[in-house]
Amino acid sequence: MTIELTGRERLTRTFKGEKVDRISVSPFIWINNIYEMFEYVPNIDNNLTPDDFDIPVKFMEYHDYFNFDVLFTPGLLWYNYIPDTAENWDVSVTKEGDADHQKRTTIVKTPGGELKQIQNFNRSSRYLIVFAPQEYLIKTKKDFEIFAKYVPPAKYLDVDIIARAKQVIGNRGLINPAIMGVFNTLNQFRKLEDMMMDPMLDEGFYREMMEFFVNWNVKHMVNDAIPAGADSIELGGNLATSGVGPAFFKNYVLEYENRFADPIRKAGAFVVYHNCGDAQSIMHLYNELHINVWGYITGAPFGDVVLEDALKVIRPDIALRGNIDQVEFLRKATPFEIKERVKDLLNKVKPRGNWILSTSDFFFDGTPYENIRAFSDAGLEFGRY
User: Are strands 113-123 and 129-135 parallel, antiparallel or unpaired?
Assistant: First the structure.
């Protein structure tokens, strides 16, 4: 007789590469999905930390409704990568716009000079606020010198929400805040086109920046996030996809992601690597990453990963997560078609094991609940070992 595991036990064992009773059903869930269920329209100013909406409790209720195993992803404060005012670091933010569109200009004054960032925030749907930088903080070597000399410790994670989620979720799952890997972190401050050219034009400058952000990130995870209750850290690696090529990834990204992952694991937490896009040409290098899980095995048309290749290529102790398209398929298919797709997927992955049933990223607003239910029910029915 198979003993039914708790969500926490099931996910923990999967992350460790151990046998479980069934495949965890744990799609990537973002807060817009939670807001949609409870018809909460977030304020553009504090859409990630609303004062009148208990994210951990509602996150748990959402997962209970669909019978998901919980991987709690919130906690990242996208707009807090520039720390608040501190000694020798004077921050002022000017906001222009309305309830749906906002331009934020951030000026940082230091003894060594002034830094400037501009971001545009937009309500892309009733429940989701997105943003895009218009002007990046680090535009020149001088900007980086000022930043590195005066910037306070990183505080881009909400450790209070992590601690509360730990209490609320208990044995139902793991606390897995989704943040940025080192390459992605640099892109919070520097334009991607410049980052791609930096190693060619001035490799020393590029490595100096990456070195800084390894240490800056590690301290925040080890000193703040993990002590607050994070069981796992999900590192965003979706900018260094197949597009950068294997040579660039191996020479200029891999080392730094591992130097971020190693202290996290040493501190007792797991590491999930998040690439929800192209990965076919570089996924063999993921075997050199010091990670526990890779998501999200995104196939055509929104990624280039061939599932059968991933099952052969990725070393067996790395758990895999994803592969169900939420952009079009889950929104437009019938519940029967979804059930059949999930059944087919699980029949392919069960011989390998170490699989977590998930979408390729978070659900779009308006995804029919009967379709999400069909996804979950199929996972529970066909995911048993």
Answer: antiparallel
